[in-house]
Amino acid sequence: MHELSIAVEAVARIEEALDRRERSGADDGTGRVTGVTLRIGELAGVVPDALRFAFDIATESTRLAGARLEIETVRGLGRCPACGRTEPTGLPPLLWCEPCGTAREVLAGRELEIACVELAGPAVAAGAADGAREPGDPIREANHVPHR
């Protein structure tokens, strides 16, 4: 069940970002993580219910214990390099262009990202909720979970 390794890695990345935030003085360390939003593409091969179960296990005895997990699903999207058609890949994915038979380039659907970490205070989103990304803000930089 690779969902457990994904959950463990997400928790580790968030905790690392919280540590950097504390060291930089941006946070006093008293904040509690109340929620995490993960952005997951439908082609990433992740089972949402299994990930929720794994997240509960991975967060035990961490600063994320009891945090709510939200999952944003990103639809698969492919583009034909020959004719330029862009269409959803669907599930199971159709990875070739039906009209011309050319293999599609996958544009979306493989994402596996930490989209938002909610602290007991205001939420901190990857890329900043207000649209402005502050360079060096460690919580905002910890937004990609490697897919194994």
Automatic annotation (TrEMBL):
Pfam families for this protein: HypA (PF01155)
Key words, A-Z: Metal-binding, Nickel, Zinc
Matches recorded under Gene3D superfamilies: 3.30.2320.80
Residues at which Ni(2+) binds: H2
Keyword Metal-binding: yes
Chain intervals with Basic and acidic residues compositional bias: 131-148
Record PROSITE patterns: HYPA
Region: Disordered, residue numbers: 128-148
Record: residues binding Zn(2+): C80, C83, C97, C100
Family listed: Belongs to the HypA/HybF family.
Function: Involved in the maturation of [NiFe] hydrogenases. Required for nickel insertion into the metal center of the hydrogenase.
The protein's name: Hydrogenase maturation factor HypA
Organism ancestry: Bacteria, Bacillati, Actinomycetota, Actinomycetes, Kitasatosporales
Gene name tied to this protein: hypA
